[in-house]
Amino acid sequence: MVKGLYTAYTGMINEQHRMDVLTNNLANANTNGFKKEGTTSQSFSDQLALKIKDYTDAPFTARGLGIINPGVKIGEGYVDWSEGPMKETGNKYDMAIGGNGFFGIEYTNKARNIERDLPGQTNIMYTRDGNFTVTAEGELVTQDGDFVLSQDGGHIELDPSLPVEVSMNGNIVQDGEVVAQIGIFDFEKTTYPDGRISYDNLEHYGENMYIPVDGTNPIEGTGRVYSGFLEQSNVSVVDEMVNMIAVQRNYDTNQRMITTIDDTLDIAANQLGRLG
């Protein structure tokens, strides 16, 4: 009976984690290029329950009582890499990637954080958010001022006084000449039979950015560049809301189980054991 407390408790912790992931997805439903995340659950390994210190039956020998399972534990998280819908903006510096690939960004830390605690330190990161702009000096940057990288890994410098055209292969044309090429980078990925893909060597950093792990190097991406468009998030608000309702009901069920067991223990300890 008491083991049920632990089973219900682990269920509540798991549902709380699922709720955290769902609310993060909803909070980023309008974030350009955001990829929704999900979580999995796993059962604890079955364990053999033993009766010990029973001197009336085989002294000093543990005897098996049966198999128990103490509930559920949080499994691995995953990212849904499916493409989000494209929204036309008409701004030539807004760019979306059709297919696989990421924009390369020279990201500069704006403040201290636990991962990279030196403000001003730069790292190469990758994103699907193509909401770019041009500085007064003609450098192509993100809305936060981080440099967008060309295919050869350098900064992209333009003439802000001239009109710009961007081809689908990423070439930026000004005054009839190709002045730079937007970098489209990709990484080794796993492709499943149903068409889903998984990047096992990318870690979600924050700021809608991803960073490669274990020294993984990018390869040239095959995606196409669509100037004047932005990729929206692939979060379905309706689906996430339905999932939130299911999570809340599961949490309430586990909570009621704990209350029921607690009431039963109260009766066993304070009423059944009372002397007449």
From TrEMBL:
Q: Where in the cell is it found?
A: Bacterial flagellum basal body
GO BP terms: namely: bacterial-type flagellum-dependent swarming motility
Q: Domain Flagellar basal-body/hook protein C-terminal, which positions? A: 227-270
Listed GO CC annotations: bacterial-type flagellum basal body
Q: Which residues form the Flagellar hook protein FlgE/F/G-like D1 domain?
A: 96-179
Superkingdom field: Bacteria
Task: Show where the Flagellar basal body rod protein N-terminal domain sits.
Answer: 5-35
Per the UniProt record, which residue ranges are transmembrane?
A: none
**Entry annotated with the keyword Transmembrane:** no
Q: Which Pfam families match?
A: Flg_bb_rod, Flg_bbr_C, LlgE_F_G_D1
Query: Is this entry keyworded Repeat?
Result: no
By sequence similarity, the record places it as follows: Belongs to the flagella basal body rod proteins family.
Organism annotation: Butyrivibrio hungatei
Q: What is this protein called?
A: Flagellar basal-body rod protein FlgG
